[in-house]
Amino acid sequence: MKKKIFGLFIFVVLALFIAACSSESSGDADGKTDDAGKDNSEGGSDSKGEVEIFSWWTGAGEEDGLLALIELFEEKNPDIAIDNAAVSGGAGTNAKAVLATRMQGNDPPSTFQVHGGEELNKSWVAADKMEPLNDFYEENEWMDKFPEELIDLVSSDGNIYSIPVNIHRGNVFFYNIQVFEDNGIEVPTTMDEFFAAADKLQEAGTIPVALGDKESWTATQIFENVLLGKLGPDDYKKLFAGEIGFDDPRVAEAAEQFGKILDYVNEDHASRNWQDSAQLVANGEAAMLNMGDWAKGYFANDLDLETNVDFGYFAFPDTDGEFQVITDTFGLPKGVDNPDDVKEFLKVLASVEGQDAFNPLKGSIPARIDADPEKYDQYGKDTMEDFKNSRLVPSLAHGSAASEGFLTKANQAVNIFVTQRDVDNFIQALVSAAPEM
Amino acid sequence: MASDVQLKTKRKISKDQWTAIAFLIPSIILIIVFVYGFIGWTGYVSLSNYNSLIPDFSFAGLKNYLYLFQDFRFQADLRNTLFFTILFIGAVIVIGMGLAILIDQKLKGESIFRNIFLFPMALSFVVTGVVWQWLLNPSTGFNQFLSVFGIQPKWYTDTNILAGFEWGSIEFGLPVAIISVVIAAVWQMTGFSLAMYLAGLRGIPDELREAARMDGATEFQVYWKVVLPMLAPITISVIIIMAHISLKIFDLIYAMTGSGANFVTDVPGVYMFETTFRGNYYANGAAIAIIMLLLVAVFIVPYLWSSRKGDQ
Predict the structure, then answer these.
(1) Which residues of A touch B262 (CB under 8 A)?
(2) CA A103/CA A126 separation, integer angstroms
(3) A311-331 tens-digit pLDDT
(4) For the domain A169-325+396-436, what is the CATH superfamily, name and number?
């Protein structure tokens, strides 16, 4: 009996060994049979493959938007199955980690969410893992349906690599209308007016600016907007293209001004995330909040405030006529089994219909300029108008302006600066990280 | 005849040993591949130029390590880890032993107290982190109560460094914010050291204490001269277990405070996660992982060494 068990055990161990040693060949065999199976089913019933959509849209409005988009796609393409592979958590950090493993293991999802700009260009485009989509854009006559500066943003070396589905704006201040009225404050349009208003509020015992930098991108967002105001759109772009150095005196001036804004924030900023800081504005403890316009959805839906009654908005001082773009885009990775099916999905995503299904629910505006404004609320309509008429610049804090390596280091430098306020150190850190942009 | 018997027993033993070895082989293989193999791989990556999404395994020497040791954030991490470890282990030992001695006084309802103190251990560090994040939040937590007395500590948002002096690029000293994290960690892990000390106390025969008392020792002397020395092996175990928790801590910090303003509550684990998965600096991340491994090894290796000697 004992011997038998022992023998059996040895057999199992040997079997494991052989399986392990021959894994490569058996893997190939598996792959072949898989393909064969697929071929058969395709030939038989004319059914197509599956499109796997990889994103981090699992929050309230954004998930609804994604599901609406999927529904629209299934209506149009009943024979293509959709696999919604959303990964939640960490504002995309978890999803990006999963994506990195899959891309490096040559198992890319059919298409994936990525912020347009360097987040894609300096990563998967640089790693030669993305298909250029120029012909696809030409075929569908999209070149004049998206703003030229937006197409530039999602392009690298003259090739277009992804399709924008939505637009958020980063250079917006939200403010508590009641607090502004009580203190007799007009909406500031320049930095000087802004600081005058902030002084007035501080004297009245109200926190002028709400900040929640438990994660430092919220502070980086303020810095990039100050930078945009100081440099203007052209030089702002040149800065991130490496044509202007971070040792430019205007960058130091921007850092000084950024530090000055930080003098007006709530003391417990390090313990809050952006939603917690938005609550300060909502309940009137603080007056203003610089946040991407997803904050509008938070004020309106989660905190039940009315737009233009309870809270208002204005462009970040000195950046009127400029639009800090945060855009989610989808591209086509190399090595996908059924690129034609994926392109069908991208077509729906890029269509007016698709963008108008997704964006009102997500609380963003469409990336196309010919969408129907009637489907959007007042804020959406205003922003769509601004989007058409403004200069578009890529956001650093949200990955469009520079690689994620640079962003990580910039966030670290900002975190240190918020406490130490050492401009020289800050500039030095940015200069030494600049080669990784 | 005698040699025959010996031969038989010898053969029998070796067959048993073969069985044992055969049963061990699968787990040994798995551990070699998935533990030591990947440690080796991490070490290899940490010496490479793999600092973007494009794999680049060219040899970089100690470049990544040098970068880290010059980096403000990593220096701050090491400082924080040092103070966190000292305070955390110290508090867990003192409070755990104190509570164990109190519970050991043959009081009624002992098991109720034991369970109350042990219960936080059933929670994950993430839960502890979220709870204490709100308790020690300067605008919502204990401060609501403390404001009655006019005290408003800033807890984990405090950026002061006690007894700080310039060292490298950081201010070296005790970061006040880390104390908040220590409180949360101690709240969670003290039950464990209490249980270990309680077991240790139960292992000390009553006769020994009786004998000491007969010899005229005061109650304090009984504990100081007799009980405590006999608890020394327990203390060593507690130190080793707590040290490897505190040196690798990630989830508590991540859930509770994040990196903190000016990195006052940052630790190597959080830095590794961010630099690897947000910044795609794989080689830097691997270097941090190896440094963490070495730090833990400082505690574990001597322990393994001494227990190996014990076996012999």
Answers:
(1) 415-416, 418-420
(2) 13
(3) 999 999 999 999 999 999 999
(4) Periplasmic binding protein-like II (3.40.190.10)
